[in-house]
Amino acid sequence: MTDHYCVFGNPVTHSKSPLIHEEFAQQTQQPIRYTATLAPIDGFASAWREFVASGGRGANVTVPFKGDAYAICDTLSHRAKRAKAVNTLIVGGNGRTYGDTTDGVGLVRDLAYHRISLQGKRLLVIGAGGAVRSVLEPLLAAQPSEIVVVNRTAAKATQLAQDFADLGNIVGGAFDTLEGQFDLVINGTSASLVGDLPPLPDELFTKGAWAYDMMYGPEPTVFLQWAGPRGAKLLDGLGMLVEQAAESFFLWRNIHPETASVRTLLRQSLELA
Ligand code: ATR
Fold it and tell me: Considering only CA atoms, which residue is closest to atom 21 of ligand 1?
């Protein structure tokens, strides 16, 4: 019996998830098939129902459907409730849909993979959209001394900080309120997609600080190109992508795949693209 999984997105042809999960399946000898499904922008719910009716066992959900996926679940993990987003769907034994988000765990595992400790560190998170909302809970769980969230629309950053204030020391505001230096600066905006650089002060990084862009591509993002000459060590979101996939795979198959070889494979596939 081969179990069928897929990724829903629009667009979806660029998705690396099939490549990643095929590698995980081969490595762990799991009998699964993983495909990509283009759902209509206003038709996620029916695309999911069709997939389940055809025997589908679970799915990943990418842009722009993480909110739609959240809305159709019968049961949600506590981290998905906080994130108000779902990137992993599981069909339960009774045909009910369970939703979780593995994006935040993916980010924190990637940081751990690179031996970046967050405990007692000062973090800056840029952006206040769905991507940032999905990672704040696990970031706060790693006990940084403070998380500052800044966003072009400052009110969204302030609101986000309020929503997570029960989990740790987090404040939100506008770019021009930024003060002091940070040990880790995470760009969670979609600005990189259009080659935009958020308005950041030059003296942003402590000695030995890391700059992390949740986006990735064959070339460093404009944010990473800006951060490098200002002394930061650089990471893009490729490792986060692989780690969130590994956590989804674990939720479906109850087995943790190894990620190092898949990171290498994916980086090579980007260079060849
Ligand atoms: P996602 O699910 O990827 O987070 P989103 O919820 O639409 O997508 O959020 C996009 C984020 O990127 C927001 O924080 C957005 O800022 P606004 O809230 O002010 O819109 C930010 N963003 C997008 N383009 C940007 C740009 N060119 N410069 C700065 N921030 C940008």
Answer: 189
The side-by-side arrangement of strands in the sheet containing 182-187 is 170-173, 146-150, 122-126, 182-187, 205-213, 233-235
Q: What is the pLDDT of residue 193?
A: 84
Q: How far is CA 15 from the centre of its chain?
A: 14
The reply to whether 66 belongs to the active site is yes
Q: Which tokens belong to 85?
A: 């987003």
Read off the tokens for 136: 């704040």
Neighbours of 234 (CB within 10 A): 15
My answer on whether 112 and 204 are in the same domain is: yes
Q: Are residues 79 and 117 in the same domain?
A: no
**196 close to ligand 1 (CB < 6 Angstrom):** yes
How confident is the prediction for the chain on average, in pLDDT?
A: 97
Q: What local confidence, expressed as pLDDT, does residue 206 receive?
A: 98
| Residues 12 and 38: beta-carbon distance below 8 Å | yes
Q: pLDDT (tens digit, 9 = 90+) per residue, 132-146? A: 999 999 999 999 999
Tell whether ligand 1 has an atom less than 6 A from the beta carbon of residue 56: no
> Where in the sequence is the domain holding 259, given as residue range(s)?
3-101+239-272
pLDDT bracket for residue 88 (50, 70, 90): very high
Does the CB atom of residue 128 touch ligand 1 within 6 A? Answer: yes
Whether residues 116 and 129 fall in one domain? yes
- The domain tally of the chain equals 2
- Please report, for the domain that includes residue 255, its CATH number: 3.40.50.10860
At residue 49, the pLDDT reads 97
- This prediction's pTM: 0.96
Ligand 1 near 77 CB (within 6 A) = no
Using the atom order of ligand 1, give the atom closest to the CA of residue 128.
14
- Mean predicted confidence (pLDDT) in 187-201: 93
Task: Specify the residue with its C-alpha closest to ligand 1, atom 7.
Answer: 129
